[in-house]
Amino acid sequence: MSYITFPAAPSTSPYNALRQELREFLHDTLGSDYSAPQRARSWNGFDADFSAKLGERGWLGMTLPKIYGGHERSPLERYVVVEELLAAGAPVAAHWIADRQSAPIILRYGSEQQKQDILPRIAAGQCFFCIGMSEPDSGSDLASTRTLAEPVDGGYEITGTKLWTTYGHKAHYMTLFCRSDRRAERHAGTSQFLIDLSTPGISIRPVYDIAGEHHLNEVHFDKVFVPHSALLGEEGQGWQQVMGELAFERSGPDRFLSSFALLNELLRLISQAPSTMSKAAVGRLAAHLMVLRQMSLSVTGMLAKGENPSLQATIVKDLGAVLEQEIPEIARTLVSCEPIPGGNDPFAATLARTLLAAPSFSLRGGTREILRGIIARGLGLR
Amino acid sequence: MIEETGIRLFKQFYNGDDRLRPPEAAAAYWPDALWEAVNEAGIPLALIDEADGGFGFPSDDICQLIGIAARYTAAIPLGEALLGNWLLTKAGLAPSTEILTLLPEPLAMQIDATGSAQLLDSNATRTPFGRHATSVLALAQADNGNTYLLELGALSVESHSHNLAGEARDTLTLPLQLADTPLHPLPITADSYRALCALMRASAIAGIAEAVLELCIDYANERQQFGRPIGKFQAIQHYLARMASEVAACRVAVDSAARNLRDANKSGDAFLLQAAAAKLRCGEAAGQIAQLAHQIHGAIGFSQEHSLHIYTRRLWSWREEYGNEQYWAAIIGNTLCQNGAEQLWPTLSNTQELRP
Fold it and tell me: Is the pLDDT of residue A2 over 70?
């Protein structure tokens, strides 16, 4: 068979008690007046206190070893926690990148010192990360990176510019991908670094998005000296290390729940006076969501077994973005309502927020075009 | 193991000359040798619960077997026979080696004071392989609120019809009085029955979807234009990527529902929602996949010279049967509205028993 297999999705009912705890915590912490527009921020809501509280409850760094401050719980338990947080629209931005992908790569490639320094703080919800990959001239073509870490006495001197750096302005560290051998090209001669963002020579400038909000940044390195201990993993192995991160980044419930708050508000509204058409439209979106969730759970099951389901994760992300972008377009055909940011109408505000965010769903974490190229290559086309 | 047995058997009887048979002739044709082989292998009994004397095969493996038969375009009511025999044993009856089919719609039935039953309809339309079936099963909903399984035997054909794929979908004459037909109480609601039938058809769609993907990959690798295989072009690669994603979604949707098949009547809404989602998702995928496949194959795929049409006509037929996407979307939407907005996430995550 030449198609890409998804094994049976594991059941999450063994973790009902954990799920119940999450729901009670969220009810108590977010409060009953946590609004739909707030929920619609999805994982873009930044709240350091909230992240610290999650850390206290043992819900961050869940799969990390206990010796590094983790809880040695399964990827499936982590999945249950993450999907409850996302469904509730909880403000998870502060710890999001650190917990989802920085901790796993530090665990995999980091030195003992790096693991001991950083992992416990991630698990405590007190150490925040951003990703240094895209540059002004390097988006989908990551291998064209121009940021250079020149080997110097005692370490490296880094010069270059990273762009679209989500929450770079509030992160403690950046996982930086750049060239470390100026004579090498493309994937060769690249490395990853753990950059302490308080290092002199780093300047961070806000990049306001379409909604006028500040999540993204431009991070400029002007001859920034970092010691050898900042190297993450092996010099020259940057590309391979980054590729290993992708299955973690691409497969989770964040890849199809970005518009969930709007779907929920849509249901709330139409159920007041449902028509055949509106019920069927919402029912259809729910069906797609249910199937995507099973696909995502299947990928988590594979991750739990130590497999590297990067093709399956790519499919989940591609289908997820299509669904997320459909939801606001369908919502506006069912409810005659202009999108109005802020204001008193929760549906109008949620619609506005989701619509403005929607273009990014098929751009971030790998554009639609790149994802489809990856899937095609996985089909054995010559 | 059941997968290998299935592939061996159905591949053996796959006949590429099927594409030369026009729909009417295809509907009239009954593959005797294939049915005999299927019966001999005990396949129609494969879904029966172990507690009722069955083999104890996992229900998702059986749904995969339906998909395998579909891949090899086996023109027999396999899903109907599997489900029919499961229903017979659920009603406390013996399974059958007849050519079994099911009436797609539950029948309305009246039972008078003397206990004599009468059907309110005089015929049943769109019966799968109706003219070939030697035993027709039906679910009947009586005015007393109970559901019964009826073994109607071989029914006479009122008129012939077929679907786009050239599979017989005949109108059968129903008996006026049910004096000689015992009423067997069956603990399956009409909604669950429809959902079970829909899952059988979704399983077939998932199987043939995989076959179409394989055809398209082979074609993209073989067909050369502008000095290279067309699979080198990004447009074609993206079509194939979308198709592979749709195929994967079908597989997962069917597997998820299939695993809960044996609890169809015990799990409240859970099985119903999953089967509904599976039929809806497979129905949508069917349309996407057919369109992409024809675009990739160009003119040759549009002709009878190539076998693509055998598959795409099945995709277009099966998405309509046992409820199309709109039907099942409405079922899901109704449930969500009834449960209320606070229950949306618990319903989608199948965790309604926990606090919202």
Answer: no
Interface contact flag, B354 A23, Cβ < 8 Å: yes
Q: How confident is the model at residue B263 (pLDDT cuts 50, 70, 90)?
A: confident
Q: With contact defined as beta carbons under 8 Å apart, do A179 and A106 qualify?
A: no
Give B216's contacts in chain A (Cβ within 8 Å): none
- Of the candidates A56, A357, A16, A20, which has an alpha carbon nearest to the alpha carbon of residue A210? A357
**B58 contacts in chain A (CB < 8 Å):** none
Cβ–Cβ < 8 Å for B253, B277: yes
Picking from A61, A60, A82, the residue whose alpha carbon sits closest to that of residue A254 is: A82
Please answer yes or no on whether A87 and B349 come within 8 Å at the CB atom: yes
Query: How many angstroms separate the CA atoms of B286 and B314, rounded?
Result: 9
C-alpha B225 chain-centroid distance: 38
- Chain B neighbors of A297, CB-CB under 8 A: none
pLDDT at position A293: 97
Q: Is the pLDDT of residue B159 over 70?
A: yes
Q: Which of A265, A279, A378 sits opposite B333 (nearest CB)?
A: A279
Express as a percent the part of chain A with pLDDT over 70. 99
How many whole angstroms separate alpha carbon A242 and alpha carbon A191? 9
pLDDT digits (tens, 9 = 90+) for B4-47: 999 999 999 998 777 788 999 999 999 999 999 999 999 999 99
Nearest residue on chain A to B251, alpha-carbon basis? A6
Interchain proximity A380–B251, CB inside 8 Å: no
The whole-number pLDDT of residue B265 equals 80
Q: Which residues in chain B are closer than 8 Å to A350, comparing Cβ atoms? A: none
Note whether A180 and A135 are within 8 A (CB).
no
Residues in B touching A375 (Cβ below 8 Å): 240-241, 244-245
Residue of B nearest to A298 (CA): B252
Average pLDDT score over residue span A98-125: 97
Provide Rg for chain A, Cα atoms.
21
DSSP A256-306: T-TTHHHHHHHHHHHTTS--HHHHHHHHHHHHHHHHHHHHHHHHHHHHHTT
**Distance, in angstroms, between B56 CA and closest chain A CA?**
18
pLDDT band at B99 (very low <50, low <70, confident <90, very high): very high
